[in-house]
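Give me structure tokens for this 249-residue protein.
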Amino acid sequence: MNFLSKNQYNYLIRLTKNAHFRKKEGKALVEGEKVIKDLVKNAPQVIEYVIISPKIQNKFKFNKTLLIKESGIHRLSNRRNGFTAAALINSSDLMTTDISKLEEGVYIALENIQNPENMGMIFRTSVAFGVKGIFLLDSCVSPLNQKSIDASTGSVFNMPYMQVNDIKDIIELKTENTEFISTTVDSTKSYKDIKKGGTKIVFFGNEGSGINTSTLAKMDYNVKISIKSIDSLNVAVSQGIILSHLLDS
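Here you go.
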């Protein structure tokens, strides 16, 4: 098994340190032995190559695998203790998932979600409840942020998602059987009043400011989750409550 070349290493350094370069290249470095094994199993087509520590050389099998010296791992890694496995992936292949033909079921639309841990938890919960797909609006943090990946336990690779420039792109998908739903503290309608079944797109907004008023105006239903003693719930917690109501059989 060959070692990572100097040119490859320098490329990965630039990729991990420069978000603009990552976006331009359409690539990302993903860390974590479990996550990489899931990728190899479920989405090998997006992997350009895997890099591993010599410590696991004898227990990791993938035809496009390179070794990396221990001294080089910590400079690449976002983790205090480094990694034993990482992969260079073509992130653009994941970001161009086509979910423009809606099926019966529940979809999620996220507007300006900024916290990567929240993004990861939203993906993880979506996979758990069988969400059909996720739309990313505005300047949402990337699901391929390493903190998002870690929080999702790799679920970002098991959930179709699609970047859209404007809510108009989602409105164009709407049929007479599609309902748009959002959560807002100002609503008088409870989430428990939403009927199950059909095709639904549930919108969740920014952690601090919530959903834009212009977006709220386009909803079929604006609902609230009744809470006591605090002003609001974490967006990922709110999502879990709504999905539990809509999809728990």
